[in-house]
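Study this pair:
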Amino acid sequence: MSRLDQSRSNSATQCRSIILYHCRTILRAPYCAGRQRVSFDPGGSLRRFGPKNSPVDHKIIMQRFLFPRWINPLMGLLAVAIAAGAVFAGAMGGLITDPKTLNPGYEPKQPVPFSHAIHAGQLKMDCRYCHNTVFEAAHAAVPPTATCVNCHSPADDQGVTPMAAVHAESLKLAPIHQSWKTGRGVAWKRVHNLPEFVFFNHAAHVNSGVSCKSCHGRIDQMETVYQHEELSMAWCIDCHRNPSPHLRPKELVTKLDWDPETFDWAAETGDASQEDFAIRTREEKNINPQVHCAVCHR
């Protein structure tokens, strides 16, 4: 046999081998490439047989990879873990952390049982006496101990109170008196706690005529402050789209018991109703809240 014939024979053999490989691994057909049957021997090698089951000299070695048997139970556990994770993620994202489920009604116990119902309700103290930065700053200030001591001054070693001594001996005021002596602040617990990625400016809202009541409810009727509204993104956007019902004269923003139905609009503002006042105020102050992301997420 000449070298050319031998080269052609080797090329043909290689081509048949490639065809047999693809027939077995892809087409999974028992017969292919000139009716030659392909099967695996006990050792896992691929062997080619002729038409009469006589083995052909050429043998293709292809060792199959098999996962260990102990993998089988783990596949079931993996499926269960994935299903449980999906249920957990759905519950956390769609139910447990929903504003209506989680936030409203949150009422932490404070180190001092301060009653807004007494101070803001019965005594008619203005919100700004304690939260004195609400009209100038983005955040409403938590009152320092000095503000409390103006009325609840502790007695000194001689039993003298340098300032007003309302219930000076009350045990409920002990944290206030201790803070005054040591100079360390009272560890008040925050009630209305927005996420860190949300920007809210108190001054922008109250100066536009939005009352404390719109977001915090009737604080003047609460013995212990709790979260009254959702404070969710959808809740905020609804107000931004239609702020008119929440607008009132600026000097009445902290008057929580104010009633727009009994208010003399004609005598006080020259308007026929709260709706007319809102329309005029929005035009004069250019109150047109935006609803795009950058308004609150900066």
About this structure: Strands lie at 31-32, 36-40, 46-49, 55-60. The radius of gyration is 40 Å. Confidence is low (pLDDT under 50) at residues 26-36, 55-61. Residues 3-60 form one domain.
